[in-house]
Amino acid sequence: MSGPNGMLYGGDEIGALVFDPGHHSLRVGYAQEDTPKADIPAVIGVGPATHIPDAEEKVPDGNITQSAAKTGNELRHYIDVTEIHVPRPGMEIQTYMKDGQVDNWDLFEKMLDYCYSKVIRSPSEHHPALFTEAVWTTRPAREKLAELLFEKYQAPAFFLVKNAVLAAFANGKSTALVLDAGASQTSAVPVIDGYAIVSAAVRSPLGGDHLAAQAKIMLNNMHIQMLPIYSIQSKEVIRERERAKYTLKNLPAGLTQSWQQYMLKRQYEDFCHCVAQVSENPYEERVAAAVPGVHHEFPGGYHQDFGPERFKLTECLFEQTMGAAQLVCSAAGACDADARPALWGGVVACGGLSALAGWPDRVARELAARAPSSHRLKTHAAPSPQERRFAAWLGGSILASIGSFQQMWISSQEYDEGGKGQLERKCP
Amino acid sequence: MADILDILDIEQPGTAEITRDSILHGDKMKKKYVTAKAARRPEGMHREVFALLYNDNKDLPPLLPTDTGKAYKQTKAKLGMRKVRKWVWAPFTNPARKDNAVFYHWKRKTDESKEYPFAQFNKQVSIPSYSESEYNQYLKSEDWSQAETDHLMDLCQRFDLRFIVIHDRWDRAAFRDRSVEDLKERYYNICGILSKVKTNPWSNTVTMVNGEKRVYHYDAEHERKRKEQLRRLFDRTKEQIEEEQTLLAELKKIEARKRERERKTQDLQKLISRADGNSAAANQTAIANDGMNTPSTVSSSIARRHDRKLHKKKLASQQRPMRAIETVTVEWSGIKFPEARGTGVWLRSQRMKLPPGVGQRKTKAIEQELRLMNIDVAPTPTESICKHFNELRSDLALALDLKNALTSYEFELQALRHQYEALNPGKTLTIPPSICNTSAEADTKPLGEIIDVVGSPGSHNNTI
């Protein structure tokens, strides 16, 4: 905290927790660490507790949070990959997120319970909690969250920060134009002196989910069947582009549609991660064909090389009217003219989708073509994909461990005195 | 064999019988052997150097440093004599907070609890405040209600005068939308008024200069204009920027061409003034010679009149810097024949000799012209023939210069015409006959019009 010569450096750690709820996953961990402790899928499996298949017995019971005693038709909530990915009859997959903010508070509570008991393994009343939120989060949602943290979890202090601001902090900037390409949407938010300019924020629904949907369409058109991996008992080695030979597993009856959809979506995401690549220039068959293909084996055993298709697939993210570069242009254009040079000089790319191979380069290129020549354009993206994915969480981790930030928390005393109305004032 | 073993100090395995005597006297014998071999120190060799070579038992100095015996005992780590200071998870309060909330952090157990060090960074901008009566008395405005002003001051406090952020968080539901400049104008206006009527100066807007309060004055109109200009500058489309750049490049080209033309005009002007000087002299001689009108003097007088008219026009329009050219002094016109110099007797034919300044080519050309006119190259040098012959040759030289200039301009005109036609396919450039000189006409045209090819701006616009 302070050196022997009285100089003040570093931060001051007060055991704060940072929560970064997203559409794809929730990141949670201690402030001052460089990666979150856990990255939990933002879905919860809800199924009947009475019908427990054999497979579950092997799983340690610890990861299962129960809503009530194991009697009657009570529901059980299955959280995290090890729980969700087990085929269970009647288990529905539900998400608590909607449009960038928490929508289903009961489910979110389950998630927080899980975080405190299984990830942090420490009582919630010991840790101040810093939450990230989307720029357009509505006031009732913010207040509901504060209420939940103070009243149910007895948090000693609470704070809410816009994720764009934190992403800018994670990249060492207080003024930046944050281009956040997430699962459900892509957004461009100007941040000036650590304050997000809400009125200038723009977003488009082209996110990672869109890419996964496109991958599904593409594979359907290519007549490649994406078999769910949990259904495969065994498969044989076959030659490329040959018909797959596999035996199916005996699955319990009554698997829900939502769960199957979710599992398949994960596989399409996986496919995108392995195969899809963004070309530096707008798609051109000839150029794309010159790049060596990528081999991919599907769960059923079928495998083939993907050549130009993998570049063609990602073109859906760069449509002229809704592409990332267009978002940045309109966000910067909506800002005050005095602020624009600084914003163009610090375009920060982050979010899970930016981990896609070639994505930052393409965006930088498109921006260079569109940016006004009177501004110096500098596109900044953290070198490692993890850093880009966890940018908002990292920013939160940095912010919550800075000594001078410790005066900003809304403490439980303040909450008791002022109620949740002060949230708008204290967390701008 | 045994000798070598002796020298190398190796004991012979077979012969060495271990007897009581050998054990007792072994050392002695060895010593004896060594001392017998020991060499004396040579004169002048330092004792230390000698000791390195020969010591008592004739051992070589060790190649590696050896242990000195105590080494192992000293290797025990001595890592500070103090005890490890303990860290504790201790509560603290932050004086920068108003609520005395208690947080916990790690600190040294021994550290005395002093004020939270990061509290010193809690800096706030001082924003002027006003009471209701003050507002009613001084700050009333038709444009701003008190609620709106209060909202502004509140936002200023919350966002530390970051007006762009304030503008973003402005409560548009309750108040009408205002520009950043409006907000700034109102705020600085309030600051100005309050600092006048109140005693406590607001640090951020009032500076004390020579004991006199100076209030920051915000020039909203200027700022609005500046912002508008900035906005326009940034909102230019790509095409506009490209157009601007090509226009700038064109402008540069045009200016370069203009400079080139001016240089040429200046050269030509020199030639003309030369002709003028010549013809004036000819006129005078003509008058003196009682009306001996030669066609050249007629044409040159016309040319002069024309020229003067042109000059007037140019002076009126002020388009080109012709005046500077007008005053150019001509130091040489046609051929200047040297006056007879020196004393004594000389041949009159000497006066007809071309001066050395005239080049070979010009001399040849003049001779050619003379031959065409059927004039003897070397006529009989009577007084009058001598004079007229010299004048004629001087005029011929000038005419040749002008002819050369004309052909070069003619060529340039044609080149420009071709350029124009290449750039605008399908169009033909009709050159007005006034500037179109065929070589047949050239002799009868007045000089001024020839010069007009390069002189007047109107005709230039046709060719560009």
What would you note in describing this structure?
Chain A: Belongs to the actin family. Chain A: This is Actin-like protein 6A. Chain A: It comes from Papilio xuthus (Asian swallowtail butterfly). The complex is a heterodimer of chains A (428) and B (464). Chain A is of the alpha+beta class. Helix content of chain A is 34%, strand content 21%. Chain A has helices at 55-58, 81-84, 105-120, 139-152, 163-170, 208-221, 257-275, 285-290, 309-314, 324-333, 340-344, 359-370, 385-389, 391-400, 412-418, 423-426, and strands spanning 17-21, 25-30, 38-41, 43-48, 64-66, 75-78, 92-95, 97-98, 101-102, 129-133, 157-162, 176-181, 186-192, 195-196, 202-204, 232-235, 246-248, 294-297, 303-306, 347-350, 379-381, 410-411. In chain A, helix 6 (208-221) crosses helix 7 (257-275) and helix 10 crosses helix 12 (359-370). The radius of gyration of chain A is 23 Å and the shape is globular. With 464 residues, chain B is mostly helical. Among the domains of chain B are: 87-121, no CATH class; 132-235, Homeodomain-like (Arc Repressor Mutant, subunit A); 244-271; 357-433, no CATH class. Chain B is built from 17 helices and four strands. In chain B, strand 1 (87-93) and strand 2 (102-108) form a beta hairpin. Chain B is flat, with a radius of gyration of 55 Å. Chains A and B meet through helix 15 of A and strand 2, helix 7 and helix 9 of B.
